[in-house]
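Input.
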Amino acid sequence: MADREQILQDLYKYLDVASNPEHNGLQVEGKREVKKIFFGVSANMELFKKAEEFKADMIIVHHGLIWNHPLPLTGVFGRRAAFLLKRDINLAGYHLPLDKHPQTGNNACLAKILGLKDIKPFGTYHGEKIGIKGSFTKAENIEKINKILKGECLAFGKKAVKTAAIVSGGAHDMFEEAIAEGTDLYITGSRDEYITETCREAQMNFIAMGHYNSERFGIQALMEYVKKKFKVQVKFADVPNPF
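Output.
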């Protein structure tokens, strides 16, 4: 058993929430004593029902319920909030802090999966670097990399790549930054219509994993951190989403 506030205070420091405080942390307040914590990528009713089956006292997600503007407690949003409040379940969300964390962040986890070395910050968002770039120990085949990531690959550049830049989620708009830095491969979650021709004309490689799929790893790494730090039971569940 653990105290909710101790968990929240620890994650506030560990994830450096102070650098991105808006809407990160506790979003729905439930019981103070926490025995079981459920982890998932995005806050939605399907995830909440799975958490209820687990008898969770707290849910921790990457995509929370609350974003840049207040919402009325009606419709889908209202039903989600009511579900948690009626069952006294805490909900905490960590967005940018979990994307950019150097150990448990989505980008760091993807770099580890690919075996990237010489890691450096990459991808400017609101004045800060939220992604990473690095190099492979040896040149890697682009099709092999895409097979690992299970993404959608636009291969207009080198077939054997030596460097890669990664920004998880909906970060296709940082593609040209990767081109400008001479990177062989850019990896993100989503892509837009213009990406194909930009990729072709720049002779560049681009992999879109799907927003959800590119952000499955950080929350699982955070779960392992919480499991080791606190005396609680934990569980991660997917709610599959191709986008």
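DSSP finds nine helices and 13 strands in the chain.
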